[in-house]
């Protein structure tokens, strides 16, 4: 039976990434639905959408900076206090977006403030996922690293369901005018509840055994990022490459698919949010299955299968996402998100295994967030442009390319890793 300490550790690693992904999905959904006309007025709706997606991508460029800053303190001062600080910055930025005036009210200052807060979101997010993974993996019993490491990745479907479920509820209870006027603010405001819960759990934790041992043996480098690039460059590049497919696949199946499905294809917002919430359960299933198998076979085979699934998803994107039937769209989303979960889940246990304890927080955070830039920051923008130029088949080729980059990341390491 799990002890109270075990439950607290796993809950703390889960709740933080749930808040992380809730915050990101709330922004992604709002960017797809309302931020264009509210904050980026333009005569061409396509230009509005690209500007909105650009603000979404801004956080990805803040994340490596957050990874370096929080990674430094996580490797020098400890995992617990760093995770508390990252959660406060991340959640505080999200809640503040709920109170922003629009372009119609204060002009160009509105999108500027939105971008500043989006940058603050990304800065906090840069230190969240890596620290949550270490919290789970560094406390895991031997042979259970991947099963414990799956709890941070499971924050993705939980945060997604909470965020899109909230938007779905608002769509069912508010008129379109009410949603545009003030309803979109409520999901951002609700993040405060999750942040308070996360802080309450994390403040009760003790430091991880791996960090305590490294500190006791004076194995904490004074500048972790310098040590990382000097002695762990290949592992960092491999980890970065392995993350690319996950981010590309996820944001194309959520933010881009939602926008494309409700505009170009003409599906109702409520119906599309509904099938996305159903499909996200396959992401959770992929995470659980792949992490359970990874403790038996190793993480690399499961990652490889996940990346191949990403390539298959790209090949099927045109005929399935572009179908008139929402059931066929749902099948593509479910298949794609299962493949994404199969690759994303083992990252929680695999990335920490690439680095020594003294640079582990920095290494995991840098690799995860650089991969996020390459895979996720530009994905919705590129997909929008590719879809306009040549349809969904071109977007699918983009996904195949992301899968090949991730397979290349795995190939950088010796088979034992």
UniProtKB/TrEMBL annotation:
Gene3D superfamilies: MFS general substrate transporter like domains. Pfam families: MFS_1. It is a multi-pass membrane protein. It is found in: Cell membrane. PROSITE patterns: MFS. InterPro entries: MFS (IPR011701), MFS_dom (IPR020846), MFS_trans_sf (IPR036259), PC1 (IPR000434). It comes from the Bacteria. GO terms for cellular component: plasma membrane. Keywords: Cell membrane, Membrane, Transmembrane, Transmembrane helix, Transport. Residues 9-417 form the Major facilitator superfamily (MFS) profile domain. The chain crosses the membrane at residues 21-40, 46-70, 82-100, 106-127, 148-170, 182-203, 237-260, 272-293, 305-324, 330-351, 363-383, 395-413. GO terms for molecular function: transmembrane transporter activity. This is MFS transporter.
């Amino acid at each position: 039976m799990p002890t109270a300490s075990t439950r607290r550790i796993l809950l703390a690693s889960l709740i933080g990434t749930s808040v992380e992904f809730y915050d990101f999905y709330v922004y992604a959904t709002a960017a797809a639905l309302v931020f264009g006309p509210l904050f980026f007025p333009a005569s061409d709706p396509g230009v509005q959408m690209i500007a909105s997606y650009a603000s979404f991508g801004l956080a990805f460029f803040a994340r490596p900076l957050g990874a370096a800053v929080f990674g430094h303190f996580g490797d020098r001062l400890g995992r617990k206090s760093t995770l508390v600080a990252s959660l406060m910055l991340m959640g505080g930025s999200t809640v503040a977006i709920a109170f922003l005036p629009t372009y119609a009210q204060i002009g160009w200052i509105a999108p500027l403030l939105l971008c500043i807060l989006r940058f603050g979101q990304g800065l906090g997010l840069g230190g969240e996922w890596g620290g949550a993974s270490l919290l789970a993996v560094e406390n895991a019993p031997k042979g259970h690293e991947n099963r414990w490491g799956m709890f941070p990745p499971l924050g993705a479907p939980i945060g997604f369901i909470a965020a899109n479920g909230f938007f779905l509820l608002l769509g069912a209870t508010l008129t379109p005018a009410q949603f545009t006027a003030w309803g979109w603010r409520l999901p951002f405001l609700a993040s405060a509840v999750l942040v308070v819960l996360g802080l309450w759990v994390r403040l009760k934790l003790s430091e991880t055994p791996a960090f305590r041992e490294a500190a006791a043996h004076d194995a904490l480098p004074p500048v972790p990022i310098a040590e990382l690039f000097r002695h762990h460059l290949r592992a960092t590049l491999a980890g970065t490459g392995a993350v690319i497919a996950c981010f590309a696949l996820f944001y194309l199946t959520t933010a881009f698919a939602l926008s494309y499905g409700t505009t170009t294809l003409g599906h109702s917002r409520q119906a599309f949010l509904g099938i996305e919430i159903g499909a996200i359960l396959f992401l959770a299933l992929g995470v659980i299955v792949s992490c359970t198998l990874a403790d038996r076979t190793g993480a690399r085979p499961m990652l490889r299968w996940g990346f191949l699934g990403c390539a298959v998803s790209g090949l099927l994107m045109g005929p399935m996402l572009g179908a008139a039937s929402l059931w066929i769209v749902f099948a593509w989303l479910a298949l794609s998100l299962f493949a994404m979960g199969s690759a994303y889940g083992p990252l929680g246990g695999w990335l920490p295994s690439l680095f020594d304890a003294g640079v582990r927080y920095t290494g995991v955070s840098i690799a995860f967030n650089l991969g996020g830039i390459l895979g996720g920051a530009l994905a919705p923008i590129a997909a929008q442009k590719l879809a306009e130029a040549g349809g969904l088949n071109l977007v699918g080729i983009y996904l195949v390319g992301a899968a090949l980059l991730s397979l290349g990341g795995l190939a950088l390491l010796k088979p034992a890793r």
